[in-house]
Amino acid sequence: QFLSNPPLTLEKNSVSVPPESQNFHWHGFTQMADFQNIVIERAEGCWLTTTSGQRLFDGVASLWCNVHGHRNPKMDEAIRAQLDRVSHITTLGMSADITDQLAERLAEVTPGDLKHVFFSSDGSSAVEAALKMALQYWHLKNQTTPSSTSTAKTRYLALSSAYHGDTTGAVSLGGIKYFHQLFAPIVFTPVRGPLPCSYRLPDGIRDATACDYYAHEIESLLKQHHAELAAVVMEPLVQGAAGMITHPAGLLARIRELCDQYNVLMIVDEVATGFGRTGRMFACDHEGVTPDILCMGKGITAGYLPMAATIARPHVFEAFLGKSSERKQFYHGHTFGGNPLAAAAAVASLDLFRDTQLTETIDAKSQFLRECLAPIADHPHVGDVRGRGLMVGIELVADRNRKTPFDSDRLIGRNVCERATELGAWIRPLGDVIVLMPPLVASNEELRFLADTVTRAIEEVLADID
Ligand code: PLP
């Protein structure tokens, strides 16, 4: 009943050269030769309206970042009010009051004693800042205690299939074949950890022993490499872009202990999981973990304006303190880091989180969405329905018993998402994993619409598949 207009029709693979009107705007992760653009002119709540009047449910929260819905009056008002005060100044040597206020509010909502906020403009840049912060931290520490280690701590441990963004440092950490392999000649090589995937455990490993198994694998690497490692970098609980891979419970806390034991910093990338997405403000809260450095982006401004942040604990921050002549300052900074309009959006979003207690509603919504998806979970080509909170992945497989993937050239995931879009729910796949990441304010009625639409799309596309 949500659709007031006839559904969209996408002409699949019909264009070999994009129409000229589409050439100006080069879209990321998109084959421009067979690209059917959908142009949005309005958005409200969880719904997008195209220039031809069709309504689409925003099933991926505008790339995993929308929280309170589009055109939330409080968000709009806060940004407009800030526009009347100051829209942009540098944060190199000065700050806007709203940005300082935001830093304090972020320290309040992030885990433990995370306190010192370094602003940037997107998730990848928040990760870059964390990498450089960790490296400079060890450089400064080793200057003051030269005997502490003879090897420079200049490397990072990243998990298999990691995704931390598209800038060069983030790509170095990355482990997704199509996104990262091509760029190998221009990046650094991390120490590569395992992929702690609860769905495909190694032979002989069960749910109950999976955490110990992966912790042991990571410990072996730390034993071997700790002297050269500045940090372990990881997404907590769910590796989003890897295909919503869920880690065994307890692993995050075990890795925290191992980082302490082997004197390596822990950088947690909460760009996707932060701001209520998993049912806690930050995913680290599920396991009572405080990393040394935490990266956030996407949901920080509730998806309204570009902003990201890297927040550090006092022991990290304090290593950078000294006389100007000692040149210990963090050698990093972005033109638009801490932008006041974005900061106003972020403060307004935190006010909304507090006033609506949105995070506390996520477990129930997640449960409801899972119930709506229960029938499709039994489909012979649905291997797994997984995730945490409102971060859900449905993995489509050729053989459910053997967990065998489809041949990736068949583009099954893409076909399902295109059909769902025609039926009124805008979603994007990760290979053959169908991603559902609605805005956190989605009502049960809207979640039911999303689940029903995706169910129908999967059934139709996989009806006669061999
Ligand atoms: N880190 C994680 C875990 C992400 O999921 C993403 C984006 O999807 C990024 C970093 C990069 O963020 P951005 O696209 O804002 O640069």
TrEMBL record:
Cofactor annotation: pyridoxal 5'-phosphate
Pfam families in alphabetical order: Aminotran_3
Gene3D superfamilies, per database record: Aspartate Aminotransferase, domain 1, Type I PLP-dependent aspartate aminotransferase-like (Major domain)
Binding positions for pyridoxal 5'-phosphate per the UniProt entry: G123, S124, D269, H334, T335
Reaction(s) the record says it catalyses: (8S)-8-amino-7-oxononanoate + S-adenosyl-L-methionine = S-adenosyl-4-methylsulfanyl-2-oxobutanoate + (7R,8S)-7,8-diammoniononanoate
Keyword annotations from UniProtKB, A to Z: Aminotransferase, Biotin biosynthesis, Cytoplasm, Pyridoxal phosphate, S-adenosyl-L-methionine, Transferase
Sites annotated Participates in the substrate recognition with KAPA and in a stacking interaction with the adenine ring of SAM: F29
Record region (Disordered): 1-17
Predominant localisation class: cytoplasm
Entry EC number(s): 2.6.1.62
GO terms (BP aspect): biotin biosynthetic process
Entry's localization field: Cytoplasm
Pathway participation: Cofactor biosynthesis; biotin biosynthesis; 7,8-diaminononanoate from 8-amino-7-oxononanoate (SAM route): step 1/1
Enzyme's top EC category: transferase
Binding site for substrate: Y163, K298, G333, R428
Role this protein plays: Catalyzes the transfer of the alpha-amino group from S-adenosyl-L-methionine (SAM) to 7-keto-8-aminopelargonic acid (KAPA) to form 7,8-diaminopelargonic acid (DAPA). It is the only aminotransferase known to utilize SAM as an amino donor.
Family note: Belongs to the class-III pyridoxal-phosphate-dependent aminotransferase family. BioA subfamily.
Quaternary structure and partners: Homodimer.
Annotated HAMAP family: BioA
Name this protein carries in UniProt: Adenosylmethionine-8-amino-7-oxononanoate aminotransferase
